[in-house]
Amino acid sequence: MGLQAASNPVSDDTASADLSIQVCAPAQAAEWDQFLSAQASASFYHLHGWTRINREALGHESVYLVARQGATVRGVLPLTVVNSAVFGRILCSVPFVNYGGPCAADEAASRALVDAARARAREVKAKYLELRCRAPLQTDLPVSTRKISMTLPLDPNPDALFEKFTSKHRTNIRRSFKNGLEVRSGGQELLPVFYSVMEHSWRSLGTPLYARSYFATILEQFPDNARIFVCSRGTEPVAVAFNGYYNGTVEGMWAGGTPAARGLQANYALYWEMMKDACQRGFMRYHLGRSTADSGAEDFKKKWNAEVEQLYWSFDRPGGGALPELNVNNPKYRMAIATWRKLPLPVTRIIGPIVARGIP
User: Fold this and answer.
1) How many CA atoms lie within 13 A of 81 on its CB side?
2) At residue 303, what are phi and psi to the nearest 5 degrees?
3) Which residues contact residue 155 at a Cβ distance below 8 angstroms, ignoring those fewer than 6 apart?
4) Would residue 123 count as lying in a domain?
5) Which of 74-83, 287-296, 337-346 is predicted least confidently?
6) How far apart are CA 24 and CA 65, in angstroms?
């Protein structure tokens, strides 16, 4: 089965006449990923395998758009339709992870993909289109700059990276290991421990957690591109993290800790072991996940010499209106967050995945 023509053609004023937008068929997954392998801007979140993850683990269908010039792929744009009981229908690139947006070989292909996404949002009757990008798009779409990414350049020699930290930060790392902490990494075998810590940690934050099957499906789909880290004191796990690996970059995706983690300074041990592992495996960059600007999370990441990179979330509302404000600082959601923190764990364990699948 080949690539199918999109139902909405791209206008001549945004792309060359011979540039077409098509929908990537399942049989074209390898071609999609092959294009990504040659693009410096390609990320773990652009890989075609996320279509299966979002469909099987969360129940959301995806439309992956391809820009072609003749037989040559010039760009791709992953899109997923999120049907939320709270927020309505959202067309997003890419939901539930740090970013996405178009990945293209040239500006014409990028613009054509964005135009096709805007048309698709109207076709599926989405409340809005959201493109989470690491670079600004050359469009007239309104942009939110509330989110940032913290990126740490790595070194092939972890000792050289360690010496670049401040004296105080090096002391904090060494002190954490004196608390008897050990860090191990793996895949599916560590998922039960990871999920147990996460469901306690995220409940305390007032955040619904995805079903365990979501993380299991990611590990199954990307056995060589995803890894779990667990920091323990003896047999007691105190901090965990889930990372993605692609194109020379480590993606910090999810993390959590127990109440004991802060006193043990567990995050210093955990993050240093993850960075050392990345250096030894030849990765060049470590994205420490996205943060809200001027937050406590940003302050911790700066201690590792991570540099601030602005994220650009572009929106299109087919029906008009202001930018959506789906964030924890929105007064509309503060009461819900406070209530969630007080719910018994057996309750959040049941309803959390149902709620989380609707929060992109």
Assistant:
1) 15
2) -65, -20
3) 161, 164, 279
4) yes
5) 287-296
6) 6
Structure tokens at 285: 């960059």
- Spacing of C-alpha 254 from chain mean position: 9
| Torsion 261-275-220-41 (CA) sign | positive
Residue 219 phi/psi, 5-degree rounding, is -65, -35
What type of residue sits at position 246?
Y
Is the confidence at residue 291, as pLDDT, over 50?
yes
pLDDT at 321 over 70: yes
Domain-embedded: residue 183? yes
Tokens at residue 244, please?
């993605």
226 and 174 share one domain:
yes
Contact 181, 336 (CB under 8 A): no
Does some domain include residue 348? no
In a domain, 335, yes or no: no
Alpha helices for the chain (secondary structure H): 29-37, 50-56, 107-123, 158-163, 167-177, 191-205, 212-221, 260-264, 266-280, 296-302, 331-342, 345-356
For residues 125 and 21, state if they share a domain: yes
What pLDDT, in 10s, does the model give residues 211-267?
999 999 999 999 999 999 999 999 999 999 999 999 999 999 999 999 999 999 999
The full length of the chain comes to 360
Question: When comparing pLDDT for 295 and 16, which is higher?
Answer: 295
Q: What is the DSSP letter of 207?
A: -
| pLDDT digits 0-9 by tens, 99-120 | 999 999 999 999 999 999 999 9
CATH number at residue 163: 3.40.630.30
Q: CA 306 to CA 295: how far, in whole Å?
A: 14
The total domain count for the chain is 2
Query: Using one digit for the tens of pLDDT, what is the confidence trace for 70-87?
Result: 999 999 999 999 998 888
Q: What is the span of the domain harbouring residue 179?
A: 155-283
Count H helices and E strands in the chain, helices first: 12, 16
Query: Strand, helix or coil at 249?
Result: strand
